[in-house]
């Protein structure tokens, strides 16, 4: 006489065969049928039973009185039970982590040995799992509705609190920290002060990309507005500049786009007045040896005797980048008064998909000590939606 486990196994195998092929098992299965059976179990459960094992099991199930006894593992029995009971799709790792007690086999076995239940238990449990699946689906939809990204999501920082734990709690990431100069970040109230230290994300033959005290904010928005306001930023030497940096990851070897207010006194040997410019640089990442200057827009020529006028007009400045799918608008404003309007510098289609928005100050790879402060008074990152 065969024991209860054998009876349950034989019944389970027959039910699984019936589900797979649509007719009752009357003879051992062929090699082709065993492969089809194995593939079907894997497709429905995410778990594997070898075709050869299924073929051997069929000989035992059909001729159990004469055949050599088969001892399938509990994991195999659970996989067959999952297949018959329409259990949720899984894999070996998930089952090991969450269901290593093999609940479907023991559920099937306890149901199948009850008198008069053999024909009814599959249909009964099918409804149970249908109800569970429906509940899970409804819960999933509720979560999506409640926690989907808000197309009007907006982050604003006025830099009133500059302690590191406060910055981190607001999602700021500080890269390449220079301790000496980072300590000066709160030297003026309600301003984040970054100094134009030596560095650049435009590398040369002797220097790798590096921007000290780079502040990054992560963004998952496909379409957004990023904006900064600066207080009295007046670059006077070399390539001193401050602005916004878009990055595909936190490495300067990724694709980047930089928009800045900058000082320029390089004209290839020509004698021209020094100038304050709006500059935009696009880099294709590590596969490209040189970035591209996509905008170089003079806003002030610094002629003799006009320094005071230029300085006054740089008292308040702002930069904005607007991204709508692959289309970017770059805007700026400089003014002697705080109530200013932005105007478009240029627009361009770009292939970058930024995941981080940064604010920075730098002066290129220039070996001098002409460091000036860039005081940020406002940062905006707004998810605008792409509709």
Written description of the protein model:
The protein is an alpha+beta fold and 387 residues long. It has helices at 4-21, 31-45, 51-62, 74-84, 92-98, 103-112, 121-147, 164-169, 179-182, 307-313, and strands at residues 154-157, 172-175, 192-195, 214-218, 224-231, 241-247, 256-264, 274-283, 292-302, 316-324, 327-335, 343-349, 356-362, 373-383. Strands 1, 3, 5, 10, 11, 12 and 14 form a seven-stranded antiparallel sheet that branches. A seven-stranded antiparallel sheet has the order 2-4-13-6-7-8-9. Strand 6 and strand 7 (256-264) form a beta hairpin.
Structure keywords:
about 30% helix; single chain; alpha+beta; 7-stranded antiparallel β-sheet; about 25% strand; about 375 residues
